[in-house]
């Protein structure tokens, strides 16, 4: 296994002033080549700290990627520090100078001394062309490690990686084949999921590993197979999927890049069915789950955002007596909301939400996180009571997720 480390340099990253997307992108690209990222680090614009992290990386990795600190200003230290680290001088590189000269000439700008110095490179570095900017990349083969230094600007870094660095890595390293398969589940927690598949997990072949990737409301299972034959790895992973899927079929909603509402949308299209929503506590978030997907107009008709009780009464036909007797957060109210929007918009199905998202508004009888959801279908209404305990946004998200999943399970005849 070829081990990689990624180092990002810049105070602005540590201060949180910019989001570091470089390390994620680089890791994904390395993974495609069978190169395993073993460490990601960020360091500020401090010479001693940068030297220290370089020394540490040399002990862990076969290839080290460095982004940032290659600009023309005084706070950009990477190039000088690398020259010191590899005990060599900076020298004007003729091709780099030609590139930076042409870069400014094309834009009708004069090449200043500070920009001319962008073409100064450590003499031990191999020049790596940057077709998108003025700071060239550098490739070192020193201390038994490959070192790749690139600008921190994402579009410059990506261009350098795709056009120059990744092809070089393929020829330099003999890497194994890595194949991933991601199973996406909803409606079950990580610990409960692990109990259901424990016996299967314990019998996995040594070269196939399982990882649990939980997020709010969703747990992804990632199978990673390592070997030399991609076709064989895919076949072996498919065989394992065939074993585990029956154990958790009710919770699996998709694979890889599938999103829950997108999957439900495809089910609705297959059935030539339509959907409307009536929302209170989710405030439009439920509708957004569907409308953010291209092609949603084929099944999603619209919704009514009935945040105030009077809107529930006037627009959805909820009886005032229901709200007076049971409250807006009740099974009786949510049933009426779902039926009301289904009739008003003339759809096959309707989803509804009403609850107490928080942080205020709860009571002993109905604490914050109490949410009712409903699905109106061809033959009646299905309701569910949720007892959530998160923040306001978590409660809104989980309520929407539960609604979408309720419809998914109904469409698949999977409700118990």
From TrEMBL:
- Which domain of life does this protein belong to? Bacteria
CDD domains the record matches? cinA
Which InterPro entries does this chain map to?
CinA, CinA-like_C, CinA_C, CinA_KH, Competence-induced_CinA, MoaB/Mog-like_dom_sf, MoaB/Mog_dom
**Where in the numbering of this chain does the MoaB/Mog domain appear?**
5-172
Question: Membrane-crossing residues?
Answer: none
Similarity comment text for this entry: Belongs to the CinA family.
Q: What is this protein called?
A: CinA-like protein
**Record organism:** Aquirufa novilacunae
């Amino acid at each position: 296994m070829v081990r990689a480390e990624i180092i990002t340099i810049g105070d602005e990253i540590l201060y949180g002033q910019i989001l570091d997307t470089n390390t994620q992108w680089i890791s994904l690209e390395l993974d495609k080549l069978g190169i395993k990222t073993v460490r990601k680090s960020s360091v500020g614009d401090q010479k001693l700290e940068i030297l220290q992290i370089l020394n540490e990386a040399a002990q862990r990795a076969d290839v080290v990627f460095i982004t940032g600190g290659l600009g023309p200003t005084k706070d950009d230290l990477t190039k000088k520090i690398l020259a010191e680290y590899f005990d060599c001088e900076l020298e004007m590189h003729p091709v780099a100078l030609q590139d930076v000269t042409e870069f400014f000439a094309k834009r009708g700008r004069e090449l200043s001394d500070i920009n001319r110095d962008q073409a100064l490179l450590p003499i031990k570095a191999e020049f790596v062309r940057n077709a998108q900017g003025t700071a060239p990349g550098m490739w070192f083969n020193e201390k038994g490690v490959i070192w790749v230094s690139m600008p921190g600007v994402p579009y410059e870094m990506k261009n350098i990686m795709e056009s120059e660095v990744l092809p070089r890595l393929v020829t330099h390293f003999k890497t194994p084949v890595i194949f991933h398969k991601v199973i996406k589940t909803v409606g079950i927690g990580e610990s409960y999921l692990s109990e259901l598949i424990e016996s299967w997990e314990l019998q996995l072949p040594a070269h196939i590993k399982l990882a649990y990737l939980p997020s709010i409301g969703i747990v992804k299972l990632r199978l990673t197979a390592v070997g030399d034959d991609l076709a064989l790895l895919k076949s072996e992973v498919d065989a394992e999927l065939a074993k585990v899927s029956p154990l958790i079929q009710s919770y699996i909603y998709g694979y890889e890049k599938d999103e829950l509402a997108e999957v439900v949308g495809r089910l609705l299209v297959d059935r030539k069915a339509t959907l409307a929503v009536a929302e209170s506590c989710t405030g439009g978030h439920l509708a957004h789950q569907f409308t953010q997907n291209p092609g949603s107009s084929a099944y999603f008709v619209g919704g009514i955002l009935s945040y105030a009780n009077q809107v529930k009464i006037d627009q959805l036909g909820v009886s005032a007596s229901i709200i007076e007797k049971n409250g807006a957060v009740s099974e009786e109210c949510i049933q009426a909301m779902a039926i009301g929007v289904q009739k008003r918009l003339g759809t096959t199905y309707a989803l509804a939400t009403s609850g107490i998202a928080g942080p205020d508004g709860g009571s002993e009888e109905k604490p914050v996180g109490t949410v009712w959801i409903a699905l109106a279908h061809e033959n009646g209404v299905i309701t569910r009571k949720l007892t959530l305990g998160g923040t306001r946004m978590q409660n809104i998200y989980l309520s929407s997720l539960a609604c979408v999943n309720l419809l998914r399970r109904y469409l698949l005849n999977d409700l118990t």
